[in-house]
Design goal:
With 157 residues, the protein is mainly alpha-helical. Helix content is 76%, strand content 0%. It has one domain: Four Helix Bundle (Hemerythrin (Met), subunit A). The longest helix is centred in the middle third of the chain and has 37 residues.
Length: 157
């Protein structure tokens, strides 16, 4: 028994420097809210938009921003209401189902707003830029969710 305790102690002491080093990247991780603008910036640079396309792109993004933010807030609020109700042991199944449906509908509204923006952005791209955008979005989606068997590339089509 003493030899096992000694081995665990040695292992713990040996691994302490590894765990104390923390993250290999310096500074704080970017916030989740910053991911969208970073991805958009990456897309704009990668597509090599003309000045006219860039102006149109920025206008489309600005036009959709209030609706995106409002739908996102509504989805967050609906999800929070559902989660709070789920924690209540006396919550009725019908009420939970109604709250769940409202949360799902709100999330769907967010997706539809993103889709509307994406379709408008797609319309200002050349066929080559559309192909590149589809490739980039496919890579981004796989990076967020990991590769999924049987699923297509995704992206702007």
């Amino acid at each position: 028994m003493k030899s096992i305790a000694a081995a665990l102690l040695c292992l713990g002491v040996g691994l302490t420097p590894v765990f104390s080093q923390g993250s290999p990247e310096p500074g704080p991780r970017p916030r989740r809210e910053e991911a969208g603008p970073r991805m958009m910036d990456h897309m704009v640079k990668a597509l090599n938009l003309t000045p006219e396309q860039k102006t149109k792109w920025d206008g489309i993004v600005a036009k959709h921003k209030p609706a995106r933010e409002a739908r996102h807030k509504a989805a967050m609020d609906a999800g929070k209401a559902y989660q709070e109700a789920m924690r209540k042991p006396d919550a009725k199944a019908e009420d939970l189902k109604t709250l769940h449906r409202a949360a799902a509908d709100a999330k769907f509204d967010v997706l539809m707003e993103h889709r509307a923006q994406r379709q408008e952005l797609r319309d200002i791209l050349t066929p080559e830029q559309r192909e590149k955008a589809a490739f980039i979005l496919g890579r981004m989606e796989r990076g967020m969710r990991g590769p999924r068997e049987g699923h297509g590339e995704g992206g702007m089509r």
